[in-house]
């Protein structure tokens, strides 16, 4: 489980395709603190570390075909900047919101607007999955815990402060950038319960 508070970013150093899977080698200054079997969020996707090379500041994760189909990992290239967050520690302050690392779908950035020192990003997503946003609700974009500013069917926007813009890969986003989205887990449960309730009333 994660909080959506990104620790730092990593650089994709190597990509190896293996049948339907892809092995990503990433480079970061915290590689020496990692261990095999550890779960870590990569742009909001929970992946298991399968190899650590601390002498090179590198480690390896594997994305299976299902993950590649639901996320933007298939678009990664060498030098792609990736948001990192290690799993939360019990007893620590909970600064974001509950992020499971289970991406629901991708979204596309449709607008980037600088607003007097901050930035507003607008995204479009496919409504067929039944996912929704609400104004002032929580959402995870590439693993970053954010508050929804504007909410419309199939669209939402978020506001980014300078700190978040600088320490995450949001500074790389442009119109057309594909991102990973995880909708608020509580909202998903409420939506599902309402759906079952309406079905039972038919």
Q: In terms of topology, how is this protein built?
A:
Layout: E1 8-18, E2 21-27, E3 39-42, E4 45-53, E5 58-63, H1 65-70, E6 81-86, E7 105-115, E8 118-125, E9 138-141, E10 144-152, E11 155-160, H2 162-167, E12 178-183, H3 185-201
Antiparallel strand pairs: 1-2, 1-6, 2-5, 3-4, 3-6, 4-5, 7-8, 7-12, 8-11, 9-10, 9-12, 10-11
- Secondary-structure element sequence? EEEEEHEEEEEEHEH
Tell me roughly what share of residues is in helical segments: 10-25%
CATH class of the largest domain, named: Mainly Beta
- Could you give a short account of the major beta sheet? 6 strands, antiparallel, barrel
**How many H/I helical runs?**
3
Question: How many independent structural domains?
Answer: 2
What's the quaternary structure here? single chain
In short:
With 202 residues, the chain is mostly beta strands.
Describe the structure.
The longest helix has 17 residues. The chain is globular. The chain has two domains: 79 residues, Elongation Factor Tu (Ef-tu), domain 3; 97 residues, Elongation Factor Tu (Ef-tu), domain 3. By secondary structure, the protein is mostly beta strands. It starts with 7 loop residues before the first strand and ends with a helix. The protein contains three helices and twelve strands, in the order βββββαββββββαβα. A six-stranded antiparallel barrel has the order 1-2-5-4-3-6. A six-stranded antiparallel β-barrel has the order 7-8-11-10-9-12.
């Amino acid at each position: 489980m994660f909080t959506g508070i990104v620790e730092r970013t990593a650089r994709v150093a190597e990509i190896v395709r293996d049948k339907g899977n892809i092995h990503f080698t990433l480079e970061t200054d915290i590689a020496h603190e990692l261990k095999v079997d550890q779960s870590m969020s990569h742009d909001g996707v929970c992946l298991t570390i399968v190899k650590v090379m601390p002498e090179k500041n590198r480690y390896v994760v594997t994305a299976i075909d299902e993950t590649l189909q639901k996320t933007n990992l298939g678009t990664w290239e060498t030098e792609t900047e990736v948001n990192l967050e290690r799993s939360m520690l019990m007893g620590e302050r909970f600064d974001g919101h509950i992020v499971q690392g289970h991406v629901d779908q991708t979204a596309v950035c449709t607008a980037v607007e600088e607003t007097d020192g901050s930035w507003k990003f607008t995204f479009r997503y496919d409504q067929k999955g039944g996912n929704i946003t609400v104004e002032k609700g929580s959402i995870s974009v590439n693993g970053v815990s954010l508050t929804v500013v504007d909410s419309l069917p199939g669209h939402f926007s978020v506001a980014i402060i300078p700190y978040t813009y600088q320490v995450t890969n949001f500074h790389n986003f442009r119109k057309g950038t594909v991102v990973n989205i995880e909708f608020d887990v509580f909202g998903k449960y409420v939506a599902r319960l309402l759906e079952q309730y309406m079905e039972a009333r038919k």
